[in-house]
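Troubleshooting log. The previous structure file for this entry was overwritten by mistake, so regenerating from the original sequence record. Sequence copied from the archived sheet and checked twice against the printout by T.R.
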Amino acid sequence: MDYKATLDYMFSQLPMFQRTGPAAYKNTLENTLKLDENYGHPHRKYRTIHVAGTNGKGSVSHMLASVLQAAGYKTGLYTSPHLKDFRERIKINGQMMPESAVVDWVSNFKANNELWKIQPSFFELTVAMAFDYFADQEIDVAVMEVGLGGRLDSTNIITPDVSIITNIGLDHTNLLGDTLEKIAGEKAGIIKSGVPVVIGTTQPETAPVFNAKAQELDTSIYFSDQEYNVAYSLLRMDGKQQLNVAKNGKDVYPELVLDLLGQYQHKNIPPVLKAVDLLNEKGYKITEDNLRAALASVVATTGLLGRWQVIGNNPLTVCDTGHNEDGIKSIVEQLKNTAYKKLHFIFGTVGDKDPGKVLALLPKHAKYYFVKADIARAMDAEELANRAKDFGLVGEVYPSVNEAYKKAQRVADKTDMIFVGGSTFVVAEVL
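Regenerated output below.
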């Protein structure tokens, strides 16, 4: 097999949540445990950090990976989904797993599976690949981002040094539960005995769930936003954010530079800083200089894509993968703080979620370009446009994301803004 044939096998032959939705979700870790045993429990050969949450977990994972790299650790990073290349999911020190290594690993699995007879999902097999590749490359530590939920996620066989849960929002309610408390219960599944857990956002509905789980497992719990907060921020001439960060009311990181844009990153800084505190208590050697250098260069160091990413100027063009209610709230708030004459909003979503709550949040003054991403799960653009009319959102339907993008580029004035979002898949097609 070559690389293209390997991806064709993984994308078309294995159940894949991104493509088929809930049908690919497994309610057991049985396949993951079988794969882990057959590959010799590779995740036990290096240290790990586990990151879950409804929003922000990707940014937090990349920030931590950047910090660990700056401190001299050979660092694995597992995230999902990918935007442009499957190999974005599996990186070591910011470098994607080589195509040849992906081909060899999948070929080896297929040969062995003649005997094993395991029928993994796309996600289960990808997690097994990451674990094994990291072990083969003898990394020091891996930052593992949860794919969906926590309790039943394939990454949840690790015993990390620190667990992080960024926040809880209403997303994937058909799988995780229809209340914040139920979803928190699923996310709390990554909490383990003796492993400190950092909560990024204190919420009255979810804090009791996390406290109860931590007490049950006799482990320490820290609500990082009760210790750290961004007291002040500004946008520098080089396009990076400059933050003043306080701890318990005292300035501890004045003029901290972050290259990730969007005010919502202010919520992601506290769990990162608290996790670094705890890692140092566990014997890691992470200095303030390491931390500052790392946060100023997260994108360059790790290759993070799609988080308030500026992809053009004159007109300002931004894409963001935020897609659930909380994510869209943060995007809309950021749009309010962005200068433009007219907003051109390229928008698409998936069809297995009710878009009503998201549509209700979107700015009514924008010109909308309704699209359907090139996946089976995507909502039909005509249907989306009709739903949007109920919320006072007016625009036109386009047969593809790229046609909408080209049209927006043609008609937008230099002082306008083009925003691309609503779905990871919409952003992926533009990138």
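Residues 3-224+263-284 form a domain with the UDP-N-acetylmuramoyl-L-alanine:D-glutamate ligase fold (CATH 3.40.1190.10). Archived copy saved in two places this time.
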